[in-house]
Design brief:
Shape: globular
CATH topology: Arc Repressor Mutant, subunit A
Helix content: 55-70%
Radius of gyration: 19 Å
CATH architecture: Orthogonal Bundle
Largest sheet: 3 strands, antiparallel
CATH superfamily: Winged helix-like DNA-binding domain superfamily/Winged helix DNA-binding domain
Number of strands: 3
Number of helices: 7
Order of helices and strands: HHHEHHEEHH
Structural class: mainly alpha
Distance between the termini: 43 Å
Strand content: 5-15%
Strand order of the largest sheet: 1-3-2
Oligomer: single chain
Length: about 170
């Protein structure tokens, strides 16, 4: 993927900041820009190389971590999307033989969704590529910089979680 493609389709939110803006605002915009650039690249690669979408990839990732399967409501909670979104993605994956639905004996309205053997093979191949893509992007950073960034973001995550807990 070329830089011009990324620049044309992914807004650089950091460019909205002015030098006189507060450093915290500029930092937040830089974080958003980095996330948007990475996500855009991953979405494009999944579409181009596997003819799939990030939500489908995410759903399959959740199911791989739950070999016993998951209810749609659980998938919805884990992925932070509506049940309707999960239903649409599941319908597509089921048609392709990637997942199967099994009714819950105690609740006829619920189904357990599981990856099929084909779904597991397909997902593992995509996940391996995904890992290589991320490593490729991060290869330009020193190990020390990666470690420092990881620790700093961990600190930020804890602060934000604490503040959100205090507000609720």
């Amino acid at each position: 993927m070329t830089d011009s493609y990324l620049n044309a389709t992914t807004p650089d939110l950091e460019s909205r900041a002015r030098p006189e803006d507060h450093g915290d605002l500029r930092l937040w915009l830089r974080l958003l820009t980095c996330c948007n650039l990475l996500e855009s690249d991953i979405r494009s690669r999944l579409r181009t190389e596997y003819e799939t979408t990030l939500p489908r990839f995410d759903l399959m990732a959740q199911l791989l971590r739950a070999p016993e399967g998951m209810k749609m409501s659980e998938l919805s909670r884990h992925m932070m999307v509506t049940n309707g979104n999960i239903t649409g993605i599941t319908d597509q994956l089921e048609k392709e033989g990637m997942v199967e639905r099994n009714k819950v004996a105690t609740d006829r309205r619920s189904s357990i969704i599981k990856l099929t053997a084909k779904g597991k093979r397909t997902f593992r191949k995509m996940a391996e590529s995904h890992e290589q893509w991320i490593q490729g992007v991060m290869a330009g950073m020193s190990e020390k910089s990666k470690k420092n960034l990881f620790e700093a973001l961990g600190e930020l995550k804890l602060i934000v979680q604490t503040q959100l807990t205090l507000r609720s």
